[in-house]
Amino acid sequence: MTETTQTTAQVATGLFIGGEARETRETLAVADPGRPGSVVGHAAAATTQDVEDAVAAAKAAYPAWAALSAEERAGLMAAAIEGIAELRDEDAEILSQENGKVRFEAWVDALVFEIRWNLALALAGEVDKAKVLDPAPGIPVSTTVAYQPLGVVSVIVPFNWPVAILGAALPHALLAGNTAIVKPPPTAPLATTRIVQRVAEKLPPGVLNVVTGADDRMGALIQHPDIAKVCFTGSVPGGKRIMAMASASLTRVTLELGGNDAAIFLADAVLDDTHLDRLYAAVFDTTGQICMNAKRIYVHRSRLEELTAGLAARLERAVIGYGLDPATTMGPLHSPAQKAFVQDLINEARDAGAEVREYGMMPSDPDLAGGNYLRPALVIDPDPGLRVVTEEQFGPVIPIIPFDTEDQAIAAANDTWGGLGGSVWTADRAAANRIGAQLACGYVWVNDHGATRLDLRAPFGGMKDSGMGREQGLEGLRAFQDTRSIAHLDEAALAASAH
């Protein structure tokens, strides 16, 4: 990654439908969350007809794309991703400005998309494999069970890590034989649209399409009878709306929603600089705006002060500021509404008598005054009924809660609406496995937590209100397929069964 200065010219992106770029009469102004009143650029605002056209283009491209072997699709997809890094510095700069996060995180966001794409292509040899069920007593048939794609897939991604999250679903959907329509987030669509279009231009027309615009014009991406599946990453209320809309046409859904991840620190947990740095990243990366971030810390009472001091020392060095400033380590929250929500959680905890410690200095640059900046906070031993514990903060605040027994920690960790991820911090491998196996979530880290150490080959997804379905890996790819069984009557087996 090279150092660059802020882009002065505003960015403009269009739609990409059926292999052709398309402009729109209306556009979305994309606000800069770090500079009040500043516009990063404009994205096309699709009409309902544009969305219908995207569905039709994907449907038209589907038969030829599905007819290819997985290896043939992988070859075309490999060619399409070539050179994607050439504009990564520029993409990262744009993403930092429209999202608010520091530029390095934006650069990694785009990098992870490429990594996930190539990991998906590595599965090509598995996609077309079938299994044969030989005749058995009372079953005089030989049955071949193979996989088939679903059709047209919509992939809807959120603002926080839009390009990386897209990589967890899009390449798997395409490799499985589906065609796709990508909907970037309306508040941060620019970098994602640029990247998707560069890939789509190298694929057969209609295989990959991108539409941007207001959510109220995007209903066809969910409810159109030609949409076979919707893959949505976002909030729990958003996921419930998607599921309700999809039910009208029995459209399949994969939902990767919010989390209230618990990190459990046993009495023997290692709390050196390495582990404390990992914990700090797990909580405060992207200003806390990552679904799989740690949202609650449960620590053995004997280690409470040590862990709190370790996080405090790191927060004291935090530099709150504009994402493109090389000195910044913590950017603004993405929206004024989210800033207000997180501040309410902090104020409520303080008013309830919890010990709240805030860190860092607000930016002094007058151009940043009124931006979505917030001082990060630790909330020590709060009442477990406070919203800072029970709700997903999605911001730079974390409750730290002591426990006395292992059973107490497990019960508290599972006493929540979500089940996305969790972590166990201990020097005892057996204890980590024992506790990890009891956490009601889809992914468990040991002595680490969060996106920086996510195995991109493994299936990822949540339980309870954190969603349904899995992304990544062969399991994630199979989620974009269904089985087809072809049974041949075996005359010899039939004759044998008659005796």
Mind summarizing the main beta sheet? 7 strands, mixed
Tally of helical runs = 18
Overall pLDDT level = 96
> Per DSSP, what share of the residues sits in E-state strands of 2 or more residues?
15-25%
**Computed structural class:** alpha/beta
Spatial extent as radius of gyration: 24 Å
Residues in helix, %:
25-40%
Low-pLDDT windows of residues: 2-7
Overall form: globular
Whole-Å distance between the termini? 74 Å
Strand order of the largest sheet: 15-16-17-14-13-19-20
Q: Quaternary state, please?
A: single chain
Can you count the beta strands?
23
Q: Could you describe the 3D structure shown?
A:
The N terminus is likely disordered. The termini are far apart. Helix 3 packs across helix 4, helix 3 runs antiparallel to helix 8 and helix 11 crosses helix 12. The longest helix is centred in the N-terminal third of the chain and has 20 residues. The protein is built from 18 helices and 23 strands. Strands 15-16-17-14-13-19-20 form a 7-stranded mixed sheet, sandwiched between helices. The protein is 36% helix and 22% strand. The chain has 499 residues and is of the alpha/beta class. Helix 14 links the parallel strand 16 and strand 17.
Features:
499 residues; alpha/beta; 7-stranded mixed β-sheet; 6-stranded mixed β-sheet; 18 helices; 36% helix; 22% strand
